[in-house]
Amino acid sequence: MESAREMRFPVAAGAPGSKKVQEGSKSQRRGRWRKGKAKASRLSHSMDLRTVTQSLVTLAEDNMAFFSSQGPGETARRLSGVFAGVREQALGLEPTLGRLLSVAHLFDLDAETPANGYRSLVHTARCCLVHLLHKSHYVASNRRSIFFRTSHNLAELEAYLTALTQLRALAYYAQHLLATNQPGRLFFEGDERVIADFLHEYITLHKGCFYGRCLGFQFTPAIRPFLQTVSIGLVSFGEHYKRNEMGLSVTASSLFTGGRFAIDPELRGAEFERIVQNLDVHFWKTFWNITEIQVLSSLANMASATVRVSRLLSLPPITFEMPLTADPKVMITISPPLAHTGPGPVLVRLISYDLREGQDSEELSSLGRSEGPRSLELRSRPQQAPRSRCLVVHIHGGGFVAQTSKSHEPYLKSWAQELGAPILSIDYSLAPEAPFPRALEECFYAYCWAVKHCALLGSTGERICLAGDSAGGNLCFTVSLRAAAYGVRVPDGIMAAYPATMLQATASPSRLLSLMDPLLPLSMLSKCVNAYAGGETEDHCDSDQKALGMVGLVQRDTALLFRDLRLGASSWLNSFLELSGQKSHPNSVPIAEPMRCSVSETALAQPESPLGTDSLKGLTLHDPSLRRSSETPDTPELSLSAEARGHSTPSAVNCLLRPEDASEESEAGDKLSTKERVYAAFPEGFHPRRSSHDAKQVTLYSSPILKNPFMSPLLAPDSMLQTLPPVHIVACALDPLLDDSVMFARRLRSLRQPVTLRVVEDLPHGFLSLAALCQETRQAAALCVERIRLVLNPPGPPV
Q: Has UniProt tagged this entry with the keyword Lipid metabolism (predicted)?
């Protein structure tokens, strides 16, 4: 056997065990070590999958032989066992990854855009193999050193071995999908009972290893400290949330949890898994809305661009008329939102880098709502700038259940500066208090109002772009579809960042990545979809929480979280610190409007309307006489009534690619054997680790409403998708929602609709909110701006 020291895999310069470690100062040695590690990382990433696997197996065998010869000690036995496990899992995983990679190109949008869930899964598994390769080489180079930290390296190796085992299970699941799905499809569309079995089997897999030492290993290194901070905050916040829900007071012992989770990755991973699997959508709403607390939002805005205008507006619920695009002489009435709670105002935020004509008009000022500090900044600037020819209408993300334009304000200010155009961001009502179709109705109403009153917003409206991220991307597509169905002006283009286009509970290769994604775990995705679809009916709040309102809960729990982290850190440094147990008595605050449960709308606390709350309220065109007789007969009559939803089936909408586009992909299904049952997809002798937490609370919501094209635009018929304007999608390669973007782009491309898809590497879902974090997120955010600029300033015809 070739020893590790004789292998050609390079030893990092300055690493322990190299001759250069004795030279130079400590900082010089550290610099050489980092450069050497970076060089080794580049070399390993340039290796193909088979070379990486073979190198890892060789190192594992060498380390296994060494520790087996070190006597009967427990540590040596565990180290020998972990390297034996690494060897076994690597050899078992490599053939499956090779098969997936061999057919992955069949699911790309085109040759210039090599991206889909199969590629992402292979890449993630390869990242784990590369990390184990580096760690195995480090162990082989330093195992005889007196400075070798045995316990630390053993714990890391065991964590990554567990992660590799779980990734092997995901690879088998992906292989099963490849064999079961229709040719060219990334989403499973078969028997709902089979997909239910698949998802419930998938949910039982252990996830804690991905939230501890292995947290964020697949992402760029600059993101990992942020993810660790979020995970510590989440588990600490989750403990307080659960105690509040049970009516328990915060005790001194509970305040130590922050420090405890910070120094114990295994404990943090186990608690993170329990929280994401068992806590309800109200927890996620509360946690995500932390960013809207005044202190945190002020800190975020300090690092963002300074704009002249950032003001909250309230659009009154009044009807108005707009001209039909086909015949401007014919007017159509736009009614205010009605679903669930009846007519109500729609909140929007106007952001403009310059003060433009119309933005300080009395008519616009009459719509303003105070948020505390002045939102119209009085800086010394030249006189009013003329109206911009462009306007951006933005719809924020947040899983349909959380956040407002305030959360997204930092990057929107940068957009306003870079694009030189005003931005109108819509604060739609949030689920579960306002399920579908309330958000769609409000966004459509606000979009139409912006088109009609663009002069008040500082724009001539010559070019209008709809832009949104995640759930906001979904609403951008559905608002445009609704505008086309009404016959009013559709936007000149759409920029959607990592959008959700398929809300139906189903499986795809990229959705498998939710097992390890700390920002989009499957249980959380399911709860958000459940809430938006109207399936979240229980009120989990106790009487004290109801009295506080969600805003009060966010403020109270955030204060507790900060106190927890502060005292937890103190207890970490001084374990004998004595704390006086003081019970926290939250002060009563005004009840927030039940529709939103967020921060920026607190000025509009209105009583709940007594009007109907039917979750299946229709989105029907009430005036079909306004349709032009010249419309083509294949244009569908748009009705989202209860009857239409109740009979909607996958076969009712044509979401197939053209037959000629799917001919090549039909070969993929023949390359792999088909298993009738999902849990028979594992080879004999392979047993992934199962979760120790009860998965009963993870409800995979299934309802005909999820197949509605205004919820899942990927399922829209061809005639509807052909009404969309040019679409520009920016997706993340490691995002569980990647396949939503790829399949939506492929459908548009098959219909010869103008569409572009850009996929950024090594970044998580939601990178726009992390734009200031590192160079990679700044570049990805700049790509979104570039896509919007293509809509606002389209390239002219070639000369």
A: yes
Under DSSP, the state recorded for 616 is T
Rounded Cα gap, residues 133 and 53, in angstroms: 8
The pLDDT confidence band at residue 41, using thresholds 50, 70 and 90, is: low
User: What φ, ψ does residue 648 adopt, rounded to 5°?
Assistant: -70, 130
Q: Which amino acid is at 654?
A: N
| Mean predicted confidence (pLDDT) in 70-80 | 90
Active site positions, annotated: 470
Burial class (CB in 10 A: 0-12, 13-18, 19+), 72: exposed
Residue matched to tokens 């935020």? 349
Position 553 confidence tier, pLDDT thresholds 50, 70, 90: very low
Asked whether the beta carbons of 753 and 723 are under 8 A apart, the reply is no
Q: How far is 395 from 393, CA to CA, in rounded Å? A: 7
Query: Looking at residue 303, what is its pLDDT?
Result: 65
Sheet of strand 388-395, all strands in order from the earlier edge strand to the far edge:
368-369, 309-315, 346-352, 423-427, 388-395, 459-469, 493-497, 727-732, 755-760
3-state secondary structure 355-381: CECCCCCHHHHCCEECCCCCCECCCCC
Phi/psi for 105 (5° steps) reads -65, -20
DSSP 113: B
More reliable by pLDDT, 796 or 71: 71
Residue 194, token pair as written in the block: 């089979």
DSSP three-state, residue 216: coil
Backbone angles phi, psi at 259, to 5 degrees: -65, -35
Of 410, 406, 419, which Cα lies nearest the Cα of 349?
406
pLDDT digits (tens, 9 = 90+) for 751-769: 999 999 999 999 999 999 8
Whether the Cβ atoms of residue 649 and residue 55 lie closer than 8 Å to each other? no
Dihedral of alpha carbons 706, 711, 713, 717, sign: positive
Separation of alpha carbons 740 and 661, rounded Å: 18
Distance CA 405, CA 347 (A): 10
Of the candidates 95, 84, 63, 116, the residue with the CA atom closest to the CA atom of residue 168: 95
Cβ-contact 65, 1 below 8 angstroms = yes
Q: Which domains does the chain have, with CATH numbers?
A: 43-185 (no CATH), 295-370+385-508+703-792 (3.40.50.1820)
What one-letter code names the amino acid at 86?
V
Residue 359 is encoded by which pair of tokens?
Answer: 């933005």
Q: Average pLDDT over the chain, rounded to whole?
A: 77
Express each pLDDT in 604-638 by its tens digit.
Answer: 333 333 333 333 333 333 333 333 333 333 433 33
Q: What is the distance between the alpha carbons of residues 395 and 278, in angstroms, rounded to a whole number?
A: 29
The secondary structure of 660-721, three-state, reads HHHCCHHHHHHHCCCCCCHHHCCCCCCCCCECCCCCCCCCCCCCHHHHCCCCCHHHCCHHHH
Which residue in the block uniquely carries the two structure tokens 């995970």?
Answer: 231
Question: Is 126 within 8 Å of 53 (Cβ atoms)?
Answer: no
Who wins on pLDDT, 576 or 568?
568
